[in-house]
Amino acid sequence: MKQDNRKQNPKNQYRINEQIRVREVRVVSDDGSSVMPTKQALDIARQRGEDLVEISPNAQPPVCRIIDYSKFLYQQKKKAKEMKQKQVKVEVKEIRFGPQTDEHDYNFKLKHAKEFLEEGNKVRAYVFFRGRSILFKEQGEVLLLRFANDLEDYGKVEQMPRLEGKKMFLFLAPKKAGQAKKSQQRQDRERREAEANANPNANDNLNEEPISDGLAASAKGIDALAQLKANLPEEE
Length: 236
Prior knowledge:
Radius of gyration: 31 Å
Order of helices and strands: EEHEEHEHEHEEHH
Strand order of the largest sheet: 2-1-4-3
Distance between the termini: 64 Å
Helix content: 25-40%
Mean pLDDT: 78
Number of strands: 8
């Protein structure tokens, strides 16, 4: 049997072998458990060339396992690592806009926001108003509402656009895996395209692009996104 060595257990998490000084213990194994004198459990461990490891000291009597102590520590470390991997670490990613962000920059940031949400992270998008640009705060709000609409398949709104100092914030949380569904605008667009493919004479109907694909500053976009705002859940 292996000799006791305190260096094997630097954190002193478990008592082993002669460190276990109670009169009797409950020894558990894959076949069940049984209560026996501690001396008997130690003798069994010696015969097997293994260690008596106390795994639950507060139980009455304390619960022990007969196992190779090094193997036991390895199993505990492996189990802790697996549990850590299962824990989802949610980060908050920031996306910054100006009140007059151009279409190319908007699409670039939209792409990154989709990736962040797909990875399970939250997104905090905001419009920064520098100097007199605060006069365009309504345009900034429309931009954020459009952003929320374009990300409807990937995230849900946690906080509607709200002005705080020189910044207007929008918070989005990722949708749970398997729950993402197409937005109504995307469904309507795909339906129109399918109808147009079935009826070539209907191609003229495609000339009118959905609002979410147009510029946020257009009058038509403002009206449609204002309606979107009314349909989104109110802040608590």
